[in-house]
Amino acid sequence: MKTAVVLNGCSPSLDQQIEEINGFLSSYLSSDFEIEVWILTHQKINKAELKGIIQTDYIGLVQTNTGYLPEDFLDALQRMFSIRKPELIVFGSSSYAKELSARLAYRLKGSSCIGVNSCRIKDGKFLVEKEVYSNHLTARFILKKVPCCISITKGFRTERDILECLPEFEVISSDAEKVYSWIKSYHSCQKENAAGLETASVVVAVGRGIGCKENIGSIAAFAESMNAKLGASRPVVMSAWTEMDKLIGASGTITAPSVCIALGISGAAAFAVGIEKSTWIVAVNKDEKAPIFKMADIGIIDDYNEVVQELTKLLSKK
Amino acid sequence: MKIAVCIKQVPASSEIETDQNTGVLIRDRGPTRINPYDLSAIEAALQLKEAYNGSVTSFTMGPKSAEAVIAYSFSMGADDGVLLSDARFAGADVYATAYTLAQGICVSDHYDLILCGSQTTDGDTGQVGPALAEQLGIPHIYGVTAVDSINETQILLTQQLGNKNMQLKAAMPCLLVIHPDAFRPRLPSLKLKLMAAKKEVKKLSMQDMQEKNILKYGLKGSPTQVERVFLPERTTYRQVLTGDGDTLALEIYNCVKQGRLI
Amino acid sequence: MRIEKLIKSFERSYDEYLEDESKMKGTAASISFPETKEEVSSIIQSLSVSRIPITVQGGKTGICGGAVPNTGHIMNLRNMSNIIQYQEKNGSHYVTVQPGITIEELNKQLYKRNLFWPPEPTETSATVGGVIATKAQGIHKCLYGETNDYIEEISYVDHHGQIFTLKRGERKFNRNQCMLPNGNVITLDTNTMGIKENHDLIDIFIGSEGMFGVIVEATLEVLNRPKEIWGIVFFFQLASDIYHFIENMKNTDHQVGTASLAAIEYMDKTALKHVHELKQVATKLKDLPDVSGETVGIVYLEIFGDLEADIEKIAEKLMELAVESVSDPDTAWAVSGEIEIEKTRALRHAVPESINVAVERARLKDNRITKLGTDIAFKEKSFEELVNCYQTDADEAALDIVVFGHISDNHLHVNIVPKSYEDYCKGRRLIEKWSAQAAANRCKIFTEHGVGKLKKELYQRITSKAILNELKHLKKQMDPIGIWNPGNMFDQ
């Protein structure tokens, strides 16, 4: 299956895009897939930036007029499609990528699926899977019409092999004639506040079992080291060990992270509500009968401190 | 100014039952609700209506019971509602849904703005908005957090993409996908809710559309097909471990890493 | 499991079990988390030998300190949270549960069977055991009446560790006497106590705050869920309008076909202010639109029925009444269905919850501060008179109060949010004053929160000597070695 991977070369996150796409490709694409890479950009691309890219024989550098406009990108993709004619077009996981995937499929009269977490060819059919119903169920779709445009789900990672030798880029110039009449101006600024507790993908939650206020500092540092948000149970917040906006539970934030690490938390009902939507819960508590163990995927009956110290070491190695 | 909002009826609970034997989704059981993300789109439409003296029409495609979501939009303040309902629309994927909505919107009126929610809580992850814009041939603006101003031909918007805010001007008509955090939906008003029960929902079937080719609608018009819906195999395992912190920490670290979680 | 493993000596990591929502803090020497009634039994057998007092805990959501230990052993029932069985008899439905099941979990399971248990204390992490111990009723009392009516059978463990079952209708007082399941005959002067001559023994346990034994199982009567439910919130900008509305509403019959009013709740301006603060951090409240700053109070109603048309008729009538009292029906909120109504219920529940948070904050400055709230059903006054009385007294004492609660029997919860310990002391005196007034009017003063430890002094002061003596005598007969929940209600 002739496959094109689309990268947004205008985005500062090119590195992450390569990493997640590599993660996806290495998990699901076999030798059935003949892969090429398209980089859409209005800037110059330094070859060094692409060192970690997947093994490919073709890299197309597609010039766009703007660095931001989906309509411009779609036109470029359409042009590219007419030259290269891939059967499968793979996009990353950003909202931008999702939009392009859905719209391109519509323009090319193909089929699309976004949020894809696996794909394969079976009996000549192209099958993709994605999570539906708030991750409670998985749906498997047959994409009947080519080209199939898919956008992958978030969270793919891989250790990268650095490729010493990349194929020469083919530069496909932009259609300078094209005027996007309905876009009048475009201006962007960095959004100020980063994701909060409610949308965090990793949460470290602490309960009274951590002992005293003084222990919060080192746990906060641990949380930060793994890009996690710190949360706390009600007794901790109410003892003023940490701020009210860290409160997790019925009277505070209801979180839904991929990973929740609960330290010294007994797991009373009012707290449990706040983390039960987590994909994966690790609980560390000395009390083996603590209700938190009923909801944990991994429960550790031990002092939280040892586990945190060891994890910190492992993470720093990474 | 005329505003159309596209809304959807979804199962109320995310704990969906599947058939024990076949793994197939049991759809027609259990309570339903209006897709919560669509509430933000309705709210945005109502704020625009209030600010620019417009009218709001809600559109949904579904069985007769989907009238309930139109009634809900009435109770929030929508002026009209259109239900696109026909046995031949059944089984539609994103593509065919967008096609049908576009047909329904075109035969109903000329709208200056089309608003959609960012995603639904059941099936798709927000593809109908982009596909609908393509079908209508109008600009698609995703993640709209504010409508700053509107004049006769232009709309000035703020858009949030990833961790960036952007401002742009676009020509109307256009399609806006509303950012769910930006417009906190109002609750239905008692007066409107009581009136909603008596208000008529306009119904359109395939016969009312411009395009009457059956192959364009429903399952037949869908380039994707659901093969199966099933409970995901839990890749994680539930267990309680005892032992010393060092080895357990390694265990967690490995699990977390394998699961691509951190 | 061996008894040494069941009873754990107390250590710091269990500190959270020394407190409940009253914000009182106690001490204990040991703690247990039994999982079965047999475990409860063997723990008690072991403790009663040395007469170690036992404080029983459920969800620790009580606001009078009933679950706060003052010595001895804590028996926490959080791990006894299973549903044991469902039964159907003569068209009625029953569910037998362990006492540690939360209201939330119970409702979730019952929902699947289209059933519900009428007591609705809004705090869903409260446990069934706690509801029975305090006789909590919550917002649906105006439609469904007393909690007792929905408790069919209990199993309890006595001070010897023996398990007994008590079924409604099985053991009743006769000529002031009743035989316990263990064969002992107890006496109680029903006349002095102001209870029926043939009072049911099970009702002695309900609302007794664990003074007579620990409930290890309860069979609850559950009802078919109404097919349709609505929640309506009316906003008022003048106090006189809200009083006018409430009086008119009280004088109107709201029964239409299958439908009736199921909750009638009041929240004042300060209550809304506290909720607004909590809303900044609470996900559950984020779906709620902001309430206009000009609002002086709101009335929250729920209507239950099997036909939407019946409910609509009630809603229309309410709308007319609201218009007459200058409340704009365009801005009134109306939701329907189990999912949507969670939003308005979250608003109602956020009131006590946000006050608890405010009290906790005050307590950080001075740890003598605890929760201060009334539980008086003041039927003798009109709603307006009552609220004015509370407010005038509070203003005179320069105290911040929050008034909210059940409108139907003037059962308002007045909470005092102290800024200092001085405020706290003034607040205590105010509550004593109001309680004395209510007692003089023969009103109920301890309606659904219990007495616990926080209101013990108050309870002893305003309860007649004769009743107190009867209660102490009853306690002696039921718990001769005095191990159950020491310090609750009255001192031995």
Topology record:
The complex is a heterotrimer of chains A (318), B (262) and C (492).
Chain A (H helix, E strand, L loop, with lengths): L1 E7 L5 H15 L5 E8 L17 E5 L6 H15 L3 E4 L3 H13 L3 E12 L2 E8 L4 E7 L4 E5 L16 E4 L10 E8 L11 E5 L9 H10 L3 E4 L1 H5 L20 E5 L5 H7 L4 E6 L6 H4 L2 E4 L2 H14 L1
Parallel strand pairs in A: 1-2, 1-4, 2-3, 3-9, 4-8, 5-8, 11-12, 11-13, 13-14, 14-15
Antiparallel strand pairs in A: 5-6, 6-7
Chain B lengths: L1 E5 L2 E3 L20 E3 L1 H17 L2 E7 L5 H10 L3 E5 L9 H15 L4 E4 L11 H9 L3 E11 L3 E8 L2 E8 L2 E5 L11 H7 L5 E3 L19 E7 L8 E4 L2 H14 L4
Chain C lengths: L2 H4 L1 E2 L20 E3 L4 H13 L4 E4 L15 E4 L6 E7 L2 E6 L5 H10 L2 E2 L11 H7 L6 H4 L6 E7 L5 E5 L9 E3 L5 E3 L2 H4 L7 H5 L8 E11 L3 E9 L2 H12 L9 E9 H11 L17 E9 L2 H17 L8 E4 H29 L10 E2 L5 H14 L4 E6 L4 E6 L4 H20 L15 H7 L2 H14 L14
Parallel strand pairs in C: 2-4, 3-4
Antiparallel strand pairs in C: 1-2, 5-6, 6-12, 7-12, 8-9, 8-12, 10-11, 13-15, 13-16, 14-15, 14-18, 17-19, 18-19
For this entry, give a set of tags.
heterotrimer, A: 318 residues, alpha/beta, Rossmann fold, 9-stranded mixed β-sheet, 15 strands, C: alpha+beta, Uridine Diphospho-n-acetylenolpyruvylglucosamine Reductase, domain 2, Uridine Diphospho-n-acetylenolpyruvylglucosamine Reductase, domain 3, Vanillyl-alcohol Oxidase, Chain A, domain 3, 6-stranded antiparallel β-sheet, D-lactate dehydrogenase (cytochrome) activity (chain C), EC 1.1.2.4 (chain C), oxidoreductase (chain C), flavoprotein (chain C), transit peptide (chain C)
**Mean pLDDT of chain A, rounded to whole units?**
86
**What structural class is derived from the secondary structure elements of chain C?**
alpha+beta
Largest interface: A-B, 83 and 74 residues
Output the number of helix runs of chain C.
Answer: 15
Number of strands of chain C: 19
Gross CATH architecture of the largest domain in chain A? 3-Layer(aba) Sandwich
Please identify which CATH superfamily of the largest domain in chain C we are dealing with: FAD-linked oxidases, C-terminal domain
What's the main sheet of chain A like? Answer: 9 strands, mixed
Return Rg of chain C in Å: 22 Å
The number of distinct helices of chain A, counting runs of at least 4 residues, comes to 8
Distance between the termini of chain C: 34 Å
User: Which strand order do you get reading across the main beta sheet of chain A?
Assistant: 7-6-5-8-4-1-2-3-9
Can you say what the CATH homologous superfamily of the largest domain in chain A is?
HUPs
CATH class of the largest domain in chain A: Alpha Beta
